[in-house]
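Because discrete structure vocabularies remain unfamiliar, we first show an illustrative case, written as a sequence plus integers encoding its fold.
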Amino acid sequence: MEPWKRTMWILWFGVLFCSSSYTMSVPFLPLFLFDLGVPESSVNLWAGIVHSSAFLVGAVMAPLWGMLADKYGKRKMVIRAGLSLAIIYALIAFVQTPWQLVGVRMLHGFVGGFVPASMSIVASVAPKEKLGWSLGMMQAGTMTGGILGPLFGGLLAEAFGLRRSFVVAAFIILAATVAVIVWVREGKADTSEGAAAGKKKEKPITYRMAFRNRALMSMLLLLVIVQLSINMIQPLITLHIAKLQGGLQGAELSAGFVLSLIGIAGILASPVWGRLGEKKGFYRILVVCLLCAGSIISMQFFVQQLWLFAIVQFIFGLFMAGIAPIVNTLVVQSTDEQFRGRSFGLTTSANQFGAMLGPLIGGLLGLALGIHWIFVATGMIMAAAGVSVWIKRRHEMGKTKTAYRA
């Protein structure tokens, strides 16, 4: 295997485990909160707060870690983040109160940076003709890890118990970090364009300049909306599945399996959507995926059987699979190469900001309306995002045609 491919696959597994660590606790979070003394009347709200706390801090810190990776080395940032996450994740096994759990989850978000630094390493070692594919694979690994996390969490909870499963998860993240230490080397800057680079020594692109990039800002906002939509449901899914199957017994494993169906669908469908995007146009496929995903998740309002719930989740995952890779491609296309590393920090920040807001909104709606209406709200948000992208794209195409005629 070529060295750059080996590096990419090691980091692919690393980001998969790192991303899954953020969502591993989702299937049994309400049950863990019961163990910490939270009453049933407020467990939905607490589940939203705990699940969101890591994403709140992570959303703020991701651009900073991206900047430090550019300055001090991306490999160092990956190792720092991996070792820190292993220690902090193990600490969750020893918490005794809901507020302690919130505090540890906030530390969890603070020490992040594994994913954007890993993306930057892959961008630096991959050949130019393979850059789009390799970054698409890394993005798929990140999203798949976030969605498969509940399955890992459910299996670990079933095998080791609630608390010990966090220690096992810490060892998994540590093993991924050791693999980076042993096998991954950071790519060197391409010096083949020496004279051109010297000529091109313009002002470095700053975050302030990037925020004026409308195409980039639109894609970041879309990532926030998509992550918000997905995560509105997750903290409440275990109790909903328990009702569908008629009891709490084995609910964490059932929830992990059902949520993981979206990830399995993503693995199957992502390459198909990528090829369709290249042939039919990325914006067109993005609109189709958003509209179809929104329509399908709304159908859960009518579902009363667990097997049918699982099938609808899988079909939802098939359309969700096209959104993140296409958005990632459009972000790369709309940013300058010298800002590429920090653009990954911004996309990570957008993902985590959406993942932070989603559980809070879902928890509040769960108290007020019930989970069936949350499915409808999620579907409406995603469909509205699809219509918005379609209208904006038509407006841009109209302006381009007018300018061309002039």
